[in-house]
Amino acid sequence: PDRAAGFARADGSGRFASPVLSGKDAAGAVRTDHRHAHYLPTAEGPDPRRVTHLTVWAADGFGPAEEAALTGLRTVGVGDGRLAVRLVGLGRPADFTAPLFGPSAVWESATPVVGPAHVGRSGRERYLAKAVRREVRRLAEAWGWPGVPEVERVSEMPSGPRAVEYRRSRSRGGPSGWGRPAGAFYLTFPQAVSGPVCVGYGSHF
């Protein structure tokens, strides 16, 4: 609490919430700038279906309060069970060797890209690709990527489980991703960029 004094909730509850880790401001409004934390599970062992790491990345970076929260985390709830966890390291993306940090000129979908809710059933494949191109252009400008990549739709996930095997909705209610179009893509940049490259609904987790 002594490090989180500046993150008091506006509701007078005496609780604290980091805008970077929670993705919400002091009043509880959702941030839309995508500079807050992304929680990215990865399978870095021999079995691509078994998650081994959870990377927490934010374009805004972490201050002393966020670092203290991550360092102090000992267990994570998964369904009815709990997993023991420990912090492996803190640093910038270039300090880590996980594939999701790149650099690479060509990026492929590791999980399905879930599109916007307003894409209807008629022509949804075409509109999904258009929505992804629009989102990628916006992120390229916001995050300083070198140019806008070519976006290629592929029929199935390049590696790992099939697209239909992924959960595409939140567990706590709210907007659902099940009814939204989803697909796999290749992004080809003019030159190598460092990741992570996170696009679409639910890309923060």
What's this model, at a glance?
By secondary structure, the chain is α+β, with helices and mostly antiparallel strands. It contains three helices and eight strands; from the N terminus they run H-E-E-H-E-E-E-E-H-E-E. It starts with 18 loop residues before the first helix and ends in a 12-residue tail after the last strand.
Overview of this protein structure:
This protein starts with 18 loop residues before the first helix and ends in a 12-residue tail after the last strand. Strands 5, 6, 7 and 8 form a four-stranded antiparallel β-sheet that branches. A two-stranded antiparallel ribbon has the order 1-2. The protein has a two-stranded antiparallel ribbon with strand order 3-4. Helix content is 16%, strand content 20%. It is globular and about 50 Å long. It contains three helices and eight strands.
